[in-house]
Design a protein that fits this description.
Blueprint: H1 3-32, H2 36-74, H3 76-103, H4 105-112, H5 120-133, H6 136-152, H7 157-161, H8 163-180, H9 184-207, H10 223-239, H11 241-253, H12 259-294, H13 298-335, H14 342-356, H15 359-373, H16 379-403, H17 407-429, H18 438-463, H19 475-496
C-alpha cells in the first residue's frame, strides 16, 4: 500500500465534499447571514454534526478497526460475528438516545447554547430545528460503522465520498426553499435527516461485497465486543477532541451575539485541511498500523509512524501559515456576499487566524493517538484529551468577558499544542515513538519550503489587495490564482528537496 496515493484518494473525495460544503455555506451566508435563524440552525446542526465528525472522522475507526482486524485474522466468521454484535448494540443504544433527545430537546438546547435562553424566539427556533435534525445521529453512526468495514479492507473512497450526499441535499434544500419561498433554516433541518438516510443506503450497498449485515437481537456478547464498547467512550473523547472543543466553543459563544455563526464559518474553512492532513492520513494509516502491530512487524510500524507524521506535517504546516496570513481574504472570497456583511467577514477572519495557529496540532493529534489505538490502548489518549478539553474550558471561560468570543479559537489552539507535547513525551517514555532519523531533516525542508511560500503570499496579497476587496466581483478569481501559484511553488520546492516523492510513502 502507498500511504500517499491512498491519502490522495481519500482526500480527493473529501475535498470534493468540502467544496460542495463551502458552496452550501456560501448559500447559507447569502440567505441567512449571521441572523437568529442562522444561529438557531447552526446550534441545531452542531450536535448531530459533531457526532458525525466524531464517528466518521476517527472515533469509530479508532475503536473498531483494531478489534475487527484482530478478529478477522483469527477467523473470517469471528470477524463477521463481531461486526453483527456491534451493529445490533449500536442501533439499540442510538434509538434510545434519540428518543430521550426528542423528549428533552429544550434542555438539550439549553445545554448546547445556554446564551439563547435570554432570547425566546431564538431558543424556540433552535429547539424546533434540533428535533428535526437529531435523527441524523442514528443514520450517520450506522454509516460510520459501514465506513469502518470498508476502511479495514483498505477501501477508502466510498467512506470519503458519503458526505457529498449531505452537501448535495442541503444545497437542493436551499434552492427549493428559495423558489418555493419556504423557511430556509427549517428546510435545511429536514435536509440533514434526509441526507443521513441516503448516506446509510449508499454505504450498505457498497459494503455487501465484504460484509452482509444482520441484526441479531439475541445478543451474547463476546469478550471482543465488550472490549470494543469499553474502548468506544474514551475513543470518542480522544479522537474527537477537536470536535468536542468546537462544541464547547459553541456553548460559550452563545452568550455573544452572532458569535456562534462566526465560529461556524471559521470552523468550516480550517476543517478542510484537518480533513486531509489529520483525518485522511490517520484513517488510511490506522488499518495497516493495526495489522503491523498484530503481526509484530516493528520495522513496518516504524515506517508507518514516520511517514504518517511526515505526510501530516507536509500538508498542515503550509496550511497553517496560509490561514494566518490570508484569513481575511479567504473569508471574504468564500462568504463575503449578500447578508454576510464586511463586519461579519472581519469577525470570522479573526477566529480563522487563531484556529490557523493550531492546524498542525489538530492534525498531529489524529496521527499520534493512532499509535496508541493500534495497540488497543485507549486510556492514554483519553487522559491527554481530557486535559486538552479541561484547559480549553478554563482558558475560554476565564478570558471570555475580557476578550470575547475570539478567546475560543485561541484556547483551542493552545490546549491542543499542549496535548501534542504530552503525546510526544509519553510516547518517548514508553518507547512507542518509533521514528526514523530521516523525519527530522524532512521537517526542516517542509518548514523551509513553507517560509518561501509564505513570503511570496505576503508580497502578492499586499500588491494585489485592491483586487481582493469586499465589493470586487472577481475577488475569487484573483485569490484562486494567488493560492494556486504559491501552492505550486511550495510543492515544487518540496519535490526538489526530496520530501514529496511517491516512492517514499510506499509501505511494504
Amino acid at each position: 500500500m502507498n500511504l500517499l496515493s491512498s491519502t490522495y484518494i481519500f482526500s480527493f473525495f473529501t475535498l470534493l465534499s468540502r467544496i460542495l460544503g463551502y458552496l452550501r455555506d456560501i448559500l447559507i451566508a447569502i440567505f441567512l447571514g449571521a441572523s437568529i435563524y442562522a444561529d438557531a440552525f447552526f446550534v441545531a446542526f452542531r450536535l448531530p454534526n459533531t457526532f458525525r465528525r466524531l464517528f466518521a472522522e476517527g472515533t469509530f475507526n479508532a475503536a473498531f478497526i483494531p478489534s475487527y482486524t484482530s478478529a478477522k485474522i483469527e477467523a473470517k466468521e469471528k470477524g463477521k460475528k463481531f461486526a453483527n454484535e456491534v451493529l445490533t448494540l449500536l442501533v439499540i443504544v442510538l434509538l434510545f438516545i434519540i428518543l430521550l433527545a426528542e423528549i428533552f430537546t429544550p434542555y438539550l438546547v439549553y445545554l448546547i447554547a445556554p446564551g439563547f435562553a435570554d432570547d425566546t424566539q431564538k431558543f424556540n427556533l433552535a429547539t424546533e430545528f434540533t428535533r428535526i435534525t437529531f435523527p441524523f445521529l442514528l443514520f450517520v453512526s450506522i454509516s460510520s460503522f459501514f465506513s469502518s468495514i470498508l476502511n479495514s479492507n483498505n477501501k477508502f473512497a466510498a467512506a470519503a465520498a458519503a458526505p457529498i450526499i449531505l452537501n448535495i441535499i442541503l444545497i437542493l434544500s436551499l434552492i427549493i426553499s428559495f423558489f418555493l419561498k419556504l423557511n430556509f433554516a427549517k428546510q435545511l433541518s429536514y435536509g440533514v435527516t434526509l441526507a443521513g438516510i441516503f448516506q446509510t443506503i449508499f454505504l450498505i450497498f457498497l459494503t455487501t461485497k465484504y460484509y452482509k449485515p444482520s441484526l441479531e437481537f439475541k445478543i451474547r456478547l463476546s469478550k471482543k465486543v465488550k472490549l470494543f464498547f469499553k474502548k468506544l467512550f474514551p475513543s470518542i473523547l480522544s479522537s474527537g477532541v477537536t470536535q468536542i472543543n468546537i462544541l464547547i466553543g459553541t456553548i460559550i459563544a452563545s452568550f455573544e451575539s452572532s458569535a456562534v455563526s462566526y465560529l461556524y464559518y471559521a470552523d468550516r474553512i480550517y476543517q478542510i485541511n484537518l480533513a486531509i492532513a489529520g483525518i485522511a492520513v490517520g484513517t488510511v494509516s490506522l488499518p495497516v498500523l493495526s495489522k503491523a502491530f498484530s503481526q509484530k512487524k516493528n520495522l513496518k510500524v516504524s515506517n508507518i509512524q514516520s511517514r504518517s507524521i511526515e505526510l501530516s506535517l507536509l500538508l498542515s504546516i503550509p496550511a497553517s501559515f496560509g490561514l494566518i496570513l490570508a484569513s481575511k481574504e479567504i473569508v471574504n472570497v468564500l462568504f463575503g456576499y449578500g447578508s454576510f456583511t464586511y463586519e461579519d467577514v472581519d469577525m470570522t477572519a479573526s477566529a480563522l487566524k487563531y484556529f490557523g495557529f493550531g492546524i498542525p496540532a489538530f492534525a498531529l493529534i489524529k496521527i499520534l493517538s493512532n499509535f496508541f489505538f493500534a495497540r488497543n490502548n485507549t486510556k492514554t489518549p483519553f487522559y491527554i484529551s481530557s486535559l486538552i478539553v479541561l484547559l480549553n474550558v478554563i482558558i475560554s471561560i476565564y478570558f471570555f468577558k475580557e476578550v470575547g468570543f475570539i478567546i475560543i479559537p485561541i484556547a483551542t489552539s493552545i490546549s491542543t499544542w499542549i496535548g501534542v507535547i504530552c503525546y510526544i513525551y509519553i510516547l518517548n517514555s514508553k518507547n512507542f515513538l518509533l521514528i526514523q532519523k530521516y523525519l527530522y531533516s524532512s521537517i526542516i525542508k517542509v518548514v523551509a519550503s513553507t517560509v518561501l511560500m509564505s513570503f511570496l503570499l505576503m508580497v502578492l496579497l499586499n500588491n494585489y489587495s485592491i483586487y481582493l476587496d469586499y465589493g470586487n466581483k472577481f475577488k475569487a478569481f484573483y485569490l484562486l490564482i494567488i493560492v494556486g501559484f504559491v501552492t505550486s511553488i511550495y510543492l515544487i520546492s518540496c519535490y526538489l528537496t526530496g520530501v514529496l516523492k511517491t516512492k517514499n510513502f510506499k509501505i511494504n
